[in-house]
Design goal:
The structure is a single chain. This protein is of the alpha/beta class and about 200 residues long. The protein has seven helices and six strands; from the N terminus they run βαββαααβαβαβα. Strands 3-2-1-4-5-6 form a six-stranded mixed β-sheet. Helix 1 links the parallel strand 1 and strand 2.
C-alpha cells in the first residue's frame, strides 16, 4: 500500500464463473426399443423444455438430431415433425456408429467439464463391442459424466446379456433404470444427483 499513501487497499477479487451443465442425450429408437417409445418421447420432450441448452439425438443405424423439433410447445406437433424427419425409427442398431458420429460433432463443441452425456438404450447392437468401447473411451475425454439409462434394468429378471451393454459398462458413471413408475422416480433422483 506504499503507492497509495499507506492507505488500506481493497483487493479486487473475481467470483468463479458458474458453469452451466450441458446435457447431450443420445436415444436408441431401434426396433428393440419400440415398447419404450412413449417413455422416451416424454423424457426427451420434458428435458428439452426444462434445459434449453440440451441437445437430443436419436439413433438406430443412422443418427438424427431432433433438438429443434422438441422445442415446439405442442407434443402433437413435435411428434408429427419427428415422424416426418426421422425415417430410421424402429430400424436396426449401431451404437458404435452413433457414438462415433457424436464424438465427431456434438461432443467436440462446448466444455468437457460442463457436459453430461445421457445414453438411453438396451445395449443390443449389430456392431462390435470393441467399437462401442473405443468410442466410449474417446467420449469420456470430452464429457464430465456418462449416464446410461436402460429401460429393462431394475426388472427382477434383468441380467446384462447384450454384448454392447457389457462393453459399455466400464465407462458408465451412472447406470440407471427406467421400466416402471418406481424406476422413473429413481431415475429422476439419479439425474438430479448427476446435475
Amino acid at each position: 500500500s506504499v503507492r497509495h499513501g499507506l492507505d488500506l487497499v481493497e483487493l479486487a477479487r473475481s467470483a468463479r464463473k458458474t458453469r452451466k451443465t450441458r446435457i447431450v442425450m443420445l436415444c436408441d429408437v431401434s426396433g428393440s426399443m419400440d415398447a419404450f417409445n412413449p417413455f422416451l418421447l416424454q423424457l426427451m420432450f420434458g428435458l428439452q423444455q426444462a434445459l434449453k441448452s440440451s441437445r437430443t439425438l436419436v439413433f438406430s443405424t443412422q443418427v438424427s438430431e431432433i433438438t429443434q423439433y422438441l422445442r415446439r410447445r405442442s407434443v402433437v406437433e413435435t411428434l408429427g415433425e419427428i415422424g416426418d424427419k426421422v425415417r430410421h425409427w424402429s430400424g436396426g442398431t449401431d451404437v458404435g456408429a452413433a457414438l462415433r458420429e457424436l464424438n465427431r460433432t456434438v461432443l467436440r463443441e462446448g466444455s468437457a467439464r460442463a457436459t453430461v452425456l445421457i445414453i438411453i438404450s438396451d445395449g443390443y447392437d449389430n456392431g462390435t463391442p470393441e467399437r462401442i468401447a473405443a468410442e466410449l473411451e474417446a467420449a469420456k475425454r470430452r464429457i464430465r459424466t456418462l449416464v446410461w439409462i436402460n429401460p429393462m434394468f431394475g426388472a427382477t429378471t434383468f441380467v446384462v446379456r447384450a454384448a454392447g451393454m457389457k462393453a459399455a459398462l466400464p465407462y458408465v458413471d451412472h447406470f440407471l433404470p427406467a421400466f416402471n413408475a418406481r424406476a422413473l422416480h429413481d431415475l429422476v433422483k439419479g439425474l438430479a444427483a448427476v446435475g
